[in-house]
Amino acid sequence: MAEPGFEDDVYAEGAPEREFHAGIAARLPRKSVSGGALVRDEAGLILFLEPTYKPALEIPGGVAEADESPLQACRREVREEIGLDLPIGRALVIDWIPVRGPWPDQLAFVFDGGVLDAAAIARITPDPVEVGGFAFRSLAGAGERLRPSMARRLAAARLALEIGETLYAEFGRPVRGG
Question: Mind telling me which Pfam families this protein's record contains (predicted)?
Fold first, then answer.
């Protein structure tokens, strides 16, 4: 007998609760959710993308679409942005990002994108609409091209790799329970 899948889980959950007051669900706050991949080369350098639409460096990934999980968004965005179907691994960091200007608060997931060898790196095909270039760099080497919160988030992701745990962070700063 096959293990139940995602669709089976959704079916088994049943119908949503009936609202006691019309429109209550519509008044609940909305957060955006994103999934990015920490991809490294064999020297341990991080794959950074140079977006065509903003000055800061990014890792492959992006915002989840409606009814798309952070992991699905990460896989889709990696495929779109660098042209590779990578085996995306475990969640390294779940980072809450506060409201900034016109942007709502967000939950940003960073997943383990693995280590690419020279042959895989040679197959990277950046999306010309979204990606102006790419490079493997250290966090220090990315320097001022990284937003401070992204630098903190990626440092937390490196730590999560080292200790073998998923970390929860707020604006890139790991939060320990207690």
Answer: NUDIX (PF00293)
Mention every residue, 6+ apart, whose C-beta is less than 8 A from residue 62: 34, 35, 36, 73, 77, 81
Assigned token pair, 171: 């604006």
Helix (H), strand (E) at residue 48? strand 46-51
Express each pLDDT in 110-169 by its tens digit: 999 999 999 999 999 999 999 999 999 999 999 899 999 999 999 999 999 999 999 999
- Has this prediction a pTM greater than 0.85? yes
Chain centroid to Cα 131, Å, comes to: 17
Do residues 96 and 110 make contact, with C-beta atoms less than 8 angstroms apart?
Answer: no
Tokens of 11: 């079916």
End-to-end CA separation in angstroms for the chain? 42
29-173: CATH topology is: Nucleoside Triphosphate Pyrophosphohydrolase (3.90.79)
- Distance between CA 82 and CA 103 in Å, rounded? 26
d(CA 86, CA 119): 13
